[in-house]
Design a protein that fits this description.
about 70 residues; mainly alpha; 5 helices; about 0% strand; globular
Length: about 70
């Protein structure tokens, strides 16, 4: 469970009640890359992790690595 960044991002969105990548895009200001992030097409999303973690209310460490609790 939650093996990839995209999996963890989907879980984080669900936990926060964010239903679509476009809604998350509006919340974070990440426009051009959001679809690629949500679909797992960006392998190393390090520059987006902090903004995504804040917007979804999860730990940036968990979102980035899968370690620990969301």
């Amino acid at each position: 469970m939650n093996k990839t960044f995209a999996d963890r991002l989907a879980t984080a969105m669900k936990l926060k009640g964010i239903k679509t990548a476009s809604a998350l895009s509006r919340d974070t200001g990440i426009e051009r890359s959001m679809y690629r992030l949500a679909s797992g097409k960006i392998d190393n999303p390090h520059k987006y992790v902090e903004r995504l973690a804040v917007a979804t209310g999860v730990s940036s460490h968990w979102l980035s690595t899968g370690g620990g609790d969301p």
